[in-house]
Amino acid sequence: MSIKPISILVLVLLIISCGSSKQIASTSTTEEVIQVEEQKEEVFESIENESTTTIETPSEIESNETISEVETEPEITGSQDTEVFNHEAWNNLLQKHVSEQGNVNYNGFKSDKTEFYSYLNSLSETPPEDSWSKDETLAYWMNVYNAFTIKLILDNYPIQSIKDIDGPWNHRFIKIGAKWYTLNDVEHRIIRKMDEPRIHFALVCAAVSCPRLYNKAFTSKNLDSDLVLLTKGFLGDSSKNELSESSIKLSKIFKWYGGDFKSNESSLIDFLNQYSDVTISEKAKKSYKDYNWNLND
């Protein structure tokens, strides 16, 4: 049977007390009293040291071993392909509510309003930083433009056309950081200044004759390949452009933003020939198609 430390303490104190009483009774010297008190202190210190010793239970030992294992594992660093801004929520919504042809299910977006507004808030709270690359910044603003265009339609839905809204492109409803923007601000004062003409086939004005709403979020990693895909797709869509060697009937986008597709070294025809399935002559007859402003639903 084991004896607890407290029991030992009681027994020792009794023995010392008895002995000390006898000694004090027989000799009554100060020196002997001091000696007895010193013996008591040594006993107390010994027992106190034993009682403060930490005894780990099996569960505590297991826990400590687990922590040790975690601390010794090599640190996992982020992938070099990690985007500075996560557009996954927007990508999921686009995949869910936009067809391959670019038709938008606005009622579907309304049913996922919580997720949609959460993404808009994340855009508003995370403006681009100087450290971002050009492609990261461009992808961000392109997603801003398309997402807030959807918001504008939802705020006024149901409608037959974006033109049913009073001044849709001059409505200052986009908050990024501490600043407020219009769709015109985002497109003309930010995106177009980044010298990438192919954005005109990726930004959506919610109309049938506009480029289709791409059902994937733009990211810096895939930006160039996506812009090539969308540009070729837009030029190859006969409802938007009719191209041949000697005659071209173009979307009015090429009329409104014609300067964006030209430079001192190249013409509009040079730009078209980079992405067209046919080689267009510089002498080709040019005209423009009527623009259908009906909603892209």
Question: If helices are DSSP runs of H or I spanning 4 or more residues, what is the number of helices?
Answer: 11
Write down how many β-strands occur, each being a DSSP E stretch of 2 or more residues.
5
- Determine the mean pLDDT: 81
Largest sheet, in brief, is: 3 strands, mixed
Order of helices and strands: HHHHHHHEEHHEEHHE
Q: Give the end-to-end Cα distance, rounded to a whole number of Å.
A: 86 Å
What best-fitting shape do the alpha-carbon axes yield?
A: globular
Radius of gyration: 39 Å
Spatial strand arrangement across the major sheet:
3-4-5
The amount of beta strand, in percent, is 5-15%
Percent range of helical residues? 40-55%
Helices and strands: which structural class?
mainly alpha
List keywords for this structure.
mainly alpha; 2 domains; single chain; 5% strand; 297 residues; two-stranded antiparallel sheet
Summarize the structure.
The chain is 49% helix and 5% strand. The chain has 11 helices and 5 strands. The chain has helices spanning 5-26, 30-51, 58-72, 88-97, 106-111, 113-125, 134-156, 183-191, 223-236, 253-256, 268-275; strands at residues 174-176, 179-181, 242-243, 247-250, 285-288.
Describe the structure.
- There is one protein chain.
- The chain is mainly alpha-helical and 297 residues long.
- It folds into two domains: 1-46; 88-288, no CATH class.
- 49% of the residues lie in helices and 5% in strands.
- It has helices at residues 5-26, 30-51, 58-72, 88-97, 106-111, 113-125, 134-156, 183-191, 223-236, 253-256, 268-275, and strands spanning 174-176, 179-181, 242-243, 247-250, 285-288.
- Strands 3-4-5 form a three-stranded mixed β-sheet.
- A hairpin with a 2-residue loop joins strand 1 (174-176) and strand 2 (179-181).
- Helix 1 (5-26) packs antiparallel against helix 2 (30-51) and helix 7 (134-156) runs antiparallel to helix 8.
- The chain is globular, with a radius of gyration of 39 Å.
- Mean pLDDT is 81; it is low at 1-80.
